[in-house]
Amino acid sequence: MTDPSARVPGPEAHDLPKDAAHRLEELEHGLFTSDLSVNEFLLVKEAGFHPLGFVMGSSIYHIGIQTRKWGESQELTKLTEAMYTARELAMTRMEEEAEELGADGVVGVRLDVNYYEWGNDSAEFIAFGTAVKAEDGNSYRNALGKPFTSDLSGQDFWTLMQTGHVPQGLVMGQNVELPNFTQALYEARELAMTRMQDEAGRLNASGIVGVRLEEKSHQWGSHTIEFLALGTAVTRGTGEVTLPKPTTIISLDN
Fold this sequence. Notes:
This protein is of the alpha+beta class and 254 residues long. It contains five helices and seven strands. Strands 1-3-2-4 form a four-stranded mixed sheet. A three-stranded antiparallel sheet has the order 5-7-6. Strand 6 (207-216) and strand 7 form a beta hairpin.
């Protein structure tokens, strides 16, 4: 089986829908769009980045059938690979839109999965985020030369930058397991976390922040659970770190 943690090849620019190309062209002429809240927008600006546009990517993927041995716990390798590849396609297409805008990164990334009545064995994987560019003229692209991706909120992104760390990429690890025993659940979580850390290693990251481990049940099997580990890989910047001074609140009551 192909290693599900391996990155899939990125789509070419012509893979983007025509409407997407037209929308991105408008953004290149000064208009910007963003799904950041007002507070997040302000803090991203305070961190030295200007929002360029709301970017997205999607992939509708057919999930194949895999035979199972009900007497033992096992990873559903074909299902793992299909879901991992589908998410990677969505992420890569989102990154392609950010590339078209000349972005340094994408903040506030979120991954969603939709199911439709017309496709019982299919699912749409969607990646959303706001492409941003540094206002100081420096490049903040990651070790692979691509725009960084991060699922941190605008507030957390600002705080991270104050500590001298820079996002590198949204990394993930995944495992789909038949949970017959406690040990199986434990090993499934460990495998998902390991694959996430392996992705961070390929980005030469010094750490992963905002890690969360999600457990999801899907329509492909009542005895099947997906374990998905997500986080933002970061590296330590080279500049001096100036943390904001703490605020002191005093009471004026007698």
